[in-house]
Amino acid sequence: MTMVSSSMPPEPGLAARLATRVAARVALALRVSWPFAAFFIGFFLVWEYSVVIFKIPGYILPTPSQIAANGWADIPRLLDYTLITGAESLIGYALAICVGVPVGLAIAFWKPLQRTVYPFLVSLEMVPKIAFAPLFIAWLGFGLLPKVIIVVLVCFFPVALNAIHAFGSLSDELTRFCRSTGAGPLRTFWKVRLPAALPQCFVGFKYAALNATVGATIAEFMGSDQGLGFYIQIATGNMRPDLAFAGIFFLTLLGLALFGAVSLAEKLLIPWHITLRRH
Amino acid sequence: MGATIDIRSLTKTFGVGPAAVHAFGPVDLTIESGSFVSLLGPSGCGKSTLMLMIAGLLDASRGEIFFDDRKVEGPRTDIGIMFQDNTLVPWRTVEGNVALQLELRGLDPRDYADRIRDLLRSVKLDGFQRRHPYELSGGMQQRAAFCQALVHEPDTLLFDEPLGKLDAMTRESIRSDLQTLWMQKRPTVVFVTHSIEEAVQLSSTVCVVTPRPGRIERRIDIDLPWPRNLEVKASARFTQYVREIQGIFHDYGVL
Q1: Any bridge partners for residue B208, and if so which?
Q2: Domain annotation for chain A: domains and CATH numbers
Q3: Distance from CA of A194 to the nearest CA of B (A)
């Protein structure tokens, strides 16, 4: 006995429907971004053939195909180091958010901190944080900890300063509306202040995501025996710019992955925000 | 019926010492229960300041306000309040924004589902419950904000130029909705506006507010039949009231 009425048209299989949707998305992406794709491919073609035509030696500037081939030959080490630099960036980044957001909250809501800690943070923001890197290496050695601390340092400020701004800028109307309901500070926070602050917080999170891999790489330049920064430095010292470029390629992937993850979180958490609305 | 609001020698000064700005008052005014009182004046005359003080959202420098003999000493939670810039939040739907008023009060919106639906229908927003504010026109947003201000059944409503940013046609249509609601439930309404026509059309009493420092120059009871439809607005008496008020502002150098 069949449960499905015979008059129903046959449903296309799930796989077939999925394939149609994927094909439609790819077609759309191609239609919209083919100029970018063409430029991107063109850039690497020009690079490749300029090196060949002008007879630039490989130890000065390798071709993209050499970079790909030689990078592929060293792939286990590159992947290994990507994980290490990725871990440094990710741990530092997460710590910066865990510390930066509460600090921002405290400053936004507690007046005495606004007159003491806040000006201090703003003046520290003027200091190039990366200048502290050699000191931390000297104090803490070659391990994971000094790298994480440097990543925290370069990520903390955008997170904290944007959080202060985010939590301190609810409109007068909404503030008054909340007060007129008699809601306590905690309920007001969860229902209104927190969601209202998220877009500005994400501005800081995204900016910090860009800083994270920069911090990790420079920290590795300063002193380390593993990671992509270390790899690039050694490759350059050994006159192997092809391998240095391969390292840069993986660093780029790392940065893209982190930024992409934060952007995805933003899309999921605040789909209502003006910059993310689908029309 | 709404509360009787009694305002006694109310004064507001911003700042202290020689830099202090005397913004408003002294004002004495009784707003009768169930009346619709407009505070009409040019921008910067302190009419919004007065409204915020009535709501208990701004402290008076001197003087007192009473709601049915209870002194205002902090934000009043038994009122509905609406501003020119609406208090809809972008992350909630129309329905969710109306429910926000209840949730902030610790009430369960599910117990009010029928009321929310009826309110939205009364301002012609049925079918838009699940839309977000940015998907609505300015007029529809103000209608939604109106439901948000009313859902907890306040018997006193404070409006601060709620129609200030809308086009003329939308204003006209929301005014008539507002009037219908007031005639049905007779809440006490304090309505801040800078439109003479709007004040005369909606109010039982118009308080003409003049600036620097803001004070109530005249109290004019509007003796026109309800509802104040287009016919009433076309009448000679309506025009007379508008002229009279224009004259006051003219003498004061505002018009």
Answers
A1: B40, B218
A2: 73-269 (1.10.3720.10)
A3: 11
Q: How many CB pairs under 8 A join A and B?
A: 58
- In angstroms, the separation between the Cα of residue B219 and the nearest Cα of chain A is 28
Q: pLDDT (tens digit, 9 = 90+) per residue, A67-88?
A: 999 999 999 999 999 999 999 9
Measuring CA to CA, which residue among A209, A211, A210, A229 is closest to residue A219?
A229
- Give pLDDT tens digits for A133-188: 889 888 988 889 999 999 999 999 999 999 999 998 899 999 999 999 999 999 99
Phi/psi at B209 (5° precision): -105, 125
Return contacts of A72-75, CB within 8 angstroms, 24+ apart.
A74/A243, A74/A246
Q: Is B107 on the interface with A (CB under 8 A)?
A: no
Query: Which candidate, B97, B112, B93, places its Cα nearest to that of B152?
Result: B112
How far apart CA B165 and CA B58 sit, in angstroms, is 24
Q: Are residues A191 and B104, on separate chains, in Cβ contact within 8 Å?
A: yes
Q: Judge: A178–B134 Cβ closer than 8 Å, yes or no.
A: no
Considering only CA atoms, which of B47, B117, B112 is closest in space to residue B83? B47
- For residue B79, list its beta bridge partners: B156
Residues B117-173 pLDDT 10s: 998 998 888 889 899 999 998 889 999 999 999 999 898 999 998 888 888 888 888
Residues ≥6 apart with Cβ < 8 Å to B227: B176, B179, B180, B183
3-state secondary structure of B27: strand
